Amino acid sequence: MNKAVILAAGLGTRMRAADAPVRLTAEQARAADEGIKGMIPLNGRPFLDYVLSALADVGIREACLVVRPGPNSIREYYEKLSARRITIQFAIQEEQLGTANALLAARPIVSGEPFLALNSDNYYSVEVFAALQALGEPGLAAFERESLIEKGNIPRQRVRDFAILRIAADGYLERIVEKPLELGDSAIQPNGGEMFVSMNCWRFDASVFRACEQVPRSVRGEFELPVAVQFGIDALGMRFKGVPFHAGVFDLSRRSDIPDVERRLAGIKVSL
Questions:
Q1: DSSP string covering 165-207, please?
Q2: What is the pLDDT of residues 64-98, one digit of tens each?
Q3: CB–CB of 204/114 below 8 Å?
Q4: Is residue 24 included in any domain, yes or no?
Q5: Which of 161, 191, 231, 238 has its CA 20 to 30 A from that of 33?
Q6: Is the whole model's pTM more than 0.85, yes or no?
Q7: In this structure, what CATH number is given to the domain that contains residue 80?
Q8: Which residues are CB-contacts of 94 (< 8 A; sequence separation ≥ 6)?
Q9: Among candidates 136, 92, 130, which has minimal Cα distance to 114?
Q10: Count: domains in the chain
């Protein structure tokens, strides 16, 4: 498997909004105002450079960036970039109708092959990508909630918003609850005393597109990838292996995340 799809068509509403007081460079402030989180400069490089470099480190050679229509700083930057280790293509999500809809935009580019799918505003470690690449079947990274808080930059209250996972004894995903705070933690039981959450880092094959096409709109009016996965499990008999990690993720959702993520990425070498 040598392909990855990066979902980068979001509106960046939280990044554009006022947040806790934070000191940013002029370039960082401009990128934050635009709401395209992957292009926020950290240590002199766009955040997405770090993500793409980590993918290249595990042998991913083709990346598809799903972007908005019209002029876009992501597309302008990467169309001019000369990369040796990874080629970059673009898919256009014509309307912002949710992450399942965004993934459908990449279907012609992945051409029926298995691929990784991930957010453009999260930095996942090379070890996470390597484990999913070696999985050999559809699955997802399942992050233990307390470890995610301790080893990443994500505060506890924000982590409580993330989709909760129930993994069966055979290691396969049984249930994914998007926006669990709307239901309460009692809506899903921990796995052996541990609570695992999704950070939207997946290994898919072409079957996922069938679920994305058929899933109904969520209560928020969007076609959401976690809801599509649950639909695939319940209605289409799909199976997704849960790969547990006691690890952190660097999340670049808000302006206040920028200085901390920049510091955490300072020692990471980027090679494209």
A1: EEE-TTSBEEEEESSGGGT-GGGS--BTTB-EEEEEEEEE-TT
A2: 999 999 888 999 999 999 899 999 999 999 988 99
A3: yes
A4: yes
A5: 161
A6: yes
A7: 3.90.550.10
A8: 69, 105
A9: 136
A10: 1
